[in-house]
Amino acid sequence: MALLGNSYDWHTLENQLTQVHRLLGRQAHLLRVDMGYRSQNCSGTETVHGNIRQRKLWLELPTRAGVFRGERIICTKPRKNVDDPSAAWRYTPQHSPMNNYRLSEEQKTFYKVNGYLLGLPAIYSPSEMALMNAELPQLLDLLSPGETAKDIREWHETSRYLYDIVMNPKIHDLVEGILGPNFFIWGSSFFVKEPYSKSTVGWHQDAYYWPMTPHNTVTVWLAFDDVDEMNGGMKLIPGSQHKGIIKHRVSERTDSILKLELEQGIISEADAIQFRLKAGEVSLHDDRAVHGSPANPSPRRRAGLTIRYSGTNVKNDLAVNPNFKTYLCRGVDQFKLNPVGPVPSKRFGRPNFKAVSLEEAGSAGAKT
User: Fold this and answer.
1) Which residues are within 8 A (CB) of 69 and not within 5 positions of it... i.e. 6 or more apart?
2) CB of 222 within 8 A of CB of 282?
3) Which residues have CB under 8 Å from 342's CB, separation 6+?
4) Neighbours of 145 (CB within 10 A)
5) Edge-to-edge, what's the strand order for the sheet holding 90-94?
6) Which residue among 124, 162, 227, 323 sits deepest, i.e. has the most Cβ atoms within 10 Å of its Cβ?
7) Residue among 108, 37, 111, 43 nearest 73 (CA)
8) Cα 78 from Cα 87, distance rounded (Å)
9) CA angle at residue 302 from 357 to 45, to 5 degrees?
């Protein structure tokens, strides 16, 4: 993959794909690159780690056997030779089974009944997560004095680092199994519990906070660290999404990062399922499912990125959250109910607004 600033040199890409075909050997005749789908079916990133520069390309290629999704071509070469045209890239095709990230009918049924999914294939490998975690401090450095990681909300709009994550086709394959073929991404936020952190997340429903109708949203929780009961991993009440929207109250606990949470006694914590994830893995949960997480008494950090995807039939109330923007992930937006955001150009950047929920609008109004 050749990068020219923030755009792709598609002529060079086409030549390099020819080399990829040769590397695929006898299966090369199955691949037919349709360059008419360049902007929709190819995306890429470039990262620098130590003395190695790495370029990755996600492909969605029409083939005689169907559409091949998720082929990842990893290209590396020493950073010192990056501007040397004679220094060849080393191509390493990494194959994954076709539709490996598509949900089975059993998984779809389980999600409908219980409101969550675990045990999904990893989105990122340990080496990929190492690179992502190595870059994370550059994002955290953009926080202002007094802010914490929870203030990183909707920064995918201005950081290519986050945008590339939320637009990962592997994640989209999973989400499509729940929302169907037409959906967009609109929200993202970081939850970081440092070692020995006393911060908790009280029992709540995501949908209670959002000025959006109808309720047709999936939250993807991407683990940046290994997460379990020892370092404050999330818990969820299976089937609680069927109770509808439950009234929340102002939290009286000073250790909860949320101002609103469910009153005690409404749900039975004994029914909760403990989420356990390895770094690079994800969980999915319904926007009405009741969930929360305890403090982190361990010496291990617990960091995760939440990503919110909604069907294109969902409308945001711009009177409450005027900065709301969508990015179409799959299919078509036949309803066109919400503003569309521009693709970020910087690797790291923060928006010049604060995202606003119903809770915040009620107490402080929309801040831009």
Assistant:
1) 59, 60, 98, 99, 169, 173
2) yes
3) 157
4) 4
5) 42-49, 52-63, 66-78, 90-94
6) 227
7) 43
8) 9
9) 80
**Are residues 79 and 51 in contact, defined by beta-carbon separation less than 8 angstroms?**
yes
- Give the count of alpha carbons within 13 A of 287, CB side only: 23
Q: Which burial class, exposed, middle or buried, applies to 260 when counting CB atoms under 10 A from its CB (0-12, 13-18, 19+)?
A: buried
> 249, 277, 260, 111: which is closest to 180 by C-alpha?
111
pLDDT in tens, 295-319: 999 999 999 999 999 999 999 999 9
Instruction: Tell me how far apart the alpha carbons of residues 220 and 308 are, in angstroms, rounded to a whole number.
Output: 6
CA distance 328 to 188: 15
Distance (Å, whole) CA 140 – CA 328: 27
List, in order, residues 6 or more apart from 280 with CB less than 8 Å away: 122, 123, 124, 125, 126, 128, 129, 222, 223
Please choose, from the candidates 211, 156, 214, 209, the residue with its C-alpha nearest in 3D space to the C-alpha of residue 185: 156
Residue pair 19/36 in contact (Cβ under 8 Å)? The answer is no
Q: In the predicted model, is pLDDT for residue 77 greater than 70?
A: no
Quickly name the fold that domain 105-364 has: Jelly Rolls (2.60.120)
pTM, full prediction: 0.73
For residue 267, give the DSSP letter.
S
Element (H, E) at 58: strand 52-63
3-state secondary structure of 302: strand
User: Omega before 126 cis (within 30°)?
Assistant: no
DSSP state of 214: S
More confident residue, 3 or 354: 354
Q: Cα separation of 149 and 193, whole Å? A: 9
Contact 212, 331 (CB under 8 A): no
Phi, psi values for residue 294, rounded to 5°: -85, -175
How many Cβ atoms sit within 10 Å of the Cβ of residue 106? 8
Q: Which pLDDT tens digit goes with each residue over 5-55?
A: 334 444 454 455 555 444 444 343 333 333 332 333 445 555 555 555 555
> What are the sequence ranges of the domains in the chain?
3-94, 105-364
User: Is 80 exceeded by the pLDDT of residue 219?
Assistant: yes
